[in-house]
Automatic annotation (TrEMBL):
Pfam family, one: Beta-Casp
Gene3D superfamilies: 3.40.50.10890, Ribonuclease Z/Hydroxyacylglutathione hydrolase-like (3.60.15.10)
Positions of the Beta-Casp domain: 255-380
Alphabetized InterPro entries for the sequence: Beta_Casp, MBL, Metallo-B-lactamas, RibonucZ/Hydroxyglut_hydro, RMMBL
UniProt GO MF annotations: hydrolase activity; RNA endonuclease activity
CDD domains: TTHA0252-CPSF-like_MBL-fold
Start and end residues of each Metallo-beta-lactamase domain: 13-250
Hydrolase in keyword set: yes
Keywords on record: Hydrolase
Record protein name field: Beta-lactamase domain protein
Length: 467
């Protein structure tokens, strides 16, 4: 048995890990899209590093595009198996893949318009809406906390990872030549004091662990003050400077966390009177999916539901649906808040909002989650004075703010707590994935002190034998 790391290897995007069995079967853990990798992004997404048609099964940890976004390309290139995931993940993945395909088609049209003017060859999207629709048929729902069989000698078990609704840590029980090996893949690990979701579950003892390490060297600030900081940014930008607050936010997870925080502030009388626009049809759909899965909520949210039937809605909230409505926000003079995807500001409508507002010092761009360093959001976080958006250079005159504690990824204490149910002496090897190499090196040293003896930080496309 071997495992190869074809994505999220020494980087925080493109999750893809391929387990090859001695009988020829191949199990792919996630099939994520690379995002925010600069000029290399498109080429990295074109190259799987394996034959898509040779994959037997896909196990999907959660719906985020950096974990699910290349599923349509996998199917387009010959995958004919089943993709297993939790019920909420299936519901979210369906809308996310369709949205991803539409963004690609729209961005391709936009880019090709410029290329034609320059007399250069046109490009094609990785996949189309039709490709995404075909791949959705392969998704199969499986509940948490029950072993299910995907092959004669392969069983899978999902536990709640607490990252976004439906997110799961994946546990495999694989029997070969009379020997059973247990492999755990963390997916993305959430926080133990998340505002909305339940905490991550404990899980069975594993022989091998693939573990995310996004914030392996970071201790988040307490979650509560981030709500107050969010309200301060709204007040300072919209009330004091009379400007616009642009918040890049992933449509799944971060947008709902923002809406929940704003709803609580409104209930407590702390939310400034200002129009708040969610400019993403996907965000409306995703929020509806979240509403329909209250089984994923923690006790605090369930308690709130006793006095507020919708914890994601409040006076002054408006959803933008059409492109014309989105464009109209650019001509709006009155102060407002615009929440729009993507969270790294690498695609979608938020890029246009940033382009149209970045030159005005009255405005603020507020980063509320992890951004790949090379992404537009990452460059703004690092204090870039000038950025390129769709090939045009813009001077950064707007303020750039960051709320680091608003993250769906656990910090090193959360990651350590997730591992605390394991006996380090029984873990033969622990692989750190989904992290930047410098952070992973720090986290590796931390885990060695915790008693884990064999910790590897694999490179992209590297392959390791198990057992």
């Amino acid at each position: 048995m071997k495992i190869a790391f074809h994505g999220a290897a020494r980087t925080v995007t493109g999750s893809k890990h391929l387990i090859s069995l001695t009988n020829g079967k191949r199990i792919l853990l996630d099939c994520g899209m690379f995002q925010g990798m600069g000029r290399e992004t498109d080429a990295m997404n074109e190259e799987f590093g394996f034959d898509a048609a040779s994959v037997t099964h896909v196990i999907l940890s959660h719906a985020h595009i950096d974990h699910s976004g290349l599923i349509p390309l996998l199917v387009k290139r010959g995958f004919k198996g089943t993709i297993y995931c939790t019920p909420a993940t299936k519901d979210l993945t369906e809308i996310l893949l369709l949205d991803s395909a539409k963004i690609q088609e729209d961005d391709t049209k936009f880019t090709n318009k410029k290329l034609r003017k320059e007399g250069k060859p046109e490009i094609t999207p990785l996949y189309t809406i039709d490709d995404a629709k075909k791949s959705i048929n392969a998704l199969k729902k499986v509940n948490y906390n029950t072993w299910f069989q995907v092959d004669d000698n392969v069983e899978v078990y999902f536990t709640d990872a607490g990252h976004i609704i439906g997110s799961a840590a994946v546990h495999l029980r694989i029997t070969e030549n009379g020997k059973t090996t247990q492999i755990t893949f963390s997916g993305d690990i959430g926080r133990y004091n998340d505002a909305i979701l339940r905490s991550p579950d404990v899980f069975p003892q594993a022989d091998y662990i693939l573990m995310e390490s996004t914030y392996g060297s970071t201790l988040h600030a307490e979650a509560a003050p981030s709500d107050d900081l969010l309200i301060k940014y709204i007040h300072d930008t919209c009330k004091v400077k009379k400007g616009k607050l642009i918040i890049p936010a992933f449509s799944v997870g971060r947008t709902q966390e923002l809406l929940y925080a704003l709803n609580r502030a409104e209930l407590d009388g702390k939310l400034p009177k200002v129009d708040i626009f969610v400019d993403s049809p996907l965000s409306r759909e995703a929020t509806d999916v979240v509403r329909h899965h209250p089984e994923t909520f923690n006790k605090t949210v369930k308690k709130l539901l006793e006095r507020d039937d919708d914890p994601f809605d409040f006076p002054g909230l408006h959803y933008i649906s059409t492109v014309d409505e989105s464009k109209a926000l650019n001509f709006r003079e009155a102060p407002c808040v615009i929440i729009s995807a993507s969270g790294m500001a690498e695609a979608g409508r938020v890029k246009h909002h940033i382009a149209n507002n970045i030159n005005d010092s009255r405005n603020t761009i507020l980063i509320v989650g992890y951004c790949e360093p090379q992404s537009l959001g990452g460059r703004l976080m690092r204090g870039a004075k000038e950025v390129s958006i769709y090939g045009t250079r813009y001077e950064v005159r707007a303020d750039v703010g960051v709320i680091r504690s608003m993250s769906a990824h656990g910090d090193y204490e959360d990651l350590s707590q997730w591992l605390s149910c394991q006996d380090p002496r029984e873990v033969k090897k622990l692989f750190l994935v989904h992290g930047e190499y410098e952070v992973q090196t720090i986290f590796r040293n931390w885990l060695l002190k915790k008693g884990f003896q064999d910790i590897e930080i694999p490179e992209r496309h590297s392959e390791v034998g198990l057992g």
